[in-house]
UniProtKB/TrEMBL annotation:
Domain of life: Bacteria
Protein name: Membrane dipeptidase
Gene3D superfamilies according to UniProt: Metal-dependent hydrolases
PANTHER family: DIPEPTIDASE (PTHR10443:SF12), MICROSOMAL DIPEPTIDASE (PTHR10443)
PROSITE patterns listed in its UniProt record: RENAL_DIPEPTIDASE_2
Organism placement in taxonomy: Bacteria, Bacillati, Bacillota, Bacilli, Bacillales
SUPFAM superfamilies reported in the protein's UniProt record: Metallo-dependent hydrolases (SSF51556)
A single GO molecular function term of this UniProt record: metallodipeptidase activity
InterPro entries reported for this sequence: Metal_Hydrolase, Pept_M19
Gene Ontology terms describing biological process: proteolysis
Length: 313
């Protein structure tokens, strides 16, 4: 099995606890570990820099997260850093596990584009403007006034397009979503969101949003956050498949990827609580889809997209 997962929050746990390690970690704390990525057959894992509310708004914790990424993740034998399509190709050819950096919320940049350019130099290749709240760039999905992008937020989108940083709309308010879709000259991704028609949650995407992402040649990461999958008490792997099926019905077959949100959740879809259990998803997919389609969902769509839209070099 080959896996690409476009969203996990393990860096946030590593940032908060100095004692934690990514390889040979204490059991029961991390969902995503080096050993589990190996067991899953992971080709590429995106590591989100997510700063908790108490530390948010400063650059230091963002930089500390980058440091943790180097010290704890990239130091593992088979992990390689992916910043360009060339590095991705080499990673696949050498059978390594690629690690890509993303930023979930730009509060700490405080509206300064030079800081964004520095983060690009530090390897950040995808960015969501805000988490659920409002910040200097945009309103998040839980902000009740439902605003869109600020003037600085618009500058941010333009600068990301220039630099080759993918824009991630997963946590944005609907208004901000449509503004980013309109403004961005590059494809846009929703790294960890499901279909609202299947499970009515503000973090999920409407049919119109899904169609717009497809039209823009973007990607949608199916997420395993149980509340975004189903309202049922116990959420099953088959419930995850209903989102995939729906997105396929909207013409999204080539635009579906995985965005687990492992380490960002404290409850799980039954039997899908860490990368080592992704084989259960693959097995369920193979009951309904061809081997080729299953492979596209598990890794192929994301790899094709990244080889096209990561910077060259
Ligand atoms: Zn998130």
């Amino acid at each position: 099995m080959k896996v690409v997962d476009f969203h996990c929050d393990v860096l946030y746990k590593l940032l908060l606890d100095d004692e934690l390690t990514f390889q040979g970690s204490k059991p029961g704390i991390l969902d995503v570990t080096y050993e589990r990525l190996k067991a899953a057959g992971t080709i590429l894992q995106t590591f989100a820099i997510f700063i908790p509310q108490s530390m948010n708004g400063r650059l230091e914790p963002i930089l500390e997260s980058v440091d943790r990424f180097h010290q704890l993740v990239l130091s593992c034998d088979d992990m390689v850093w992916v910043r360009t399509s060339k590095e991705l190709d080499a990673c696949i050819k050498d059978g390594k596990i690629g690690a890509l950096l993303s930023l979930e919320g730009v509060d700490g940049l405080q509206g300064q584009m030079p800081m964004l350019r520095i983060l690009h130099q530090l390897g950040v290749r995808a960015a969501g403007l805000t988490w659920n709240h409002a910040n200097w760039a945009a309103d998040g999905v839980m902000e009740t006034r439902g605003g869109g992008l600020t003037t600085k937020g618009r500058q941010f989108v333009e600068e990301c397009n220039k630099l080759g940083i993918l824009l991630d709309v997963s946590h944005l308010s609907e208004k901000a979503f449509w503004e980013v879709a309109e403004l961005s000259t590059k494809p846009v991704i929703a790294s960890h969101s499901n279909a609202k028609v299947i499970c009515d949650h503000p973090r999920n995407l409407t049919n119109e949003q899904i169609k717009r992402l497809i039209e823009k040649q973007g990607l949608i990461g199916i997420t395993f956050v149980p509340y975004f999958v189903s309202k049922a008490e116990v959420v099953q792997v088959d419930d995850v498949l209903r989102h995939i099926e729906h997105m396929c019905e909207l013409g999204g077959e080539s635009h579906i990827m995985l965005g687990s949100d492992f380490d960002g959740i404290d409850r799980y879809v039954m039997g899908l609580s860490h990368p080592g259990e992704l084989s259960a998803l693959q097995e369920a997919l193979l009951k309904r889809y061809s081997g080729r389609q299953t492979e596209q969902f598990m890794s192929g769509n994301a790899l094709r997209f990244l080889s096209n839209f990561l910077p060259n070099g």
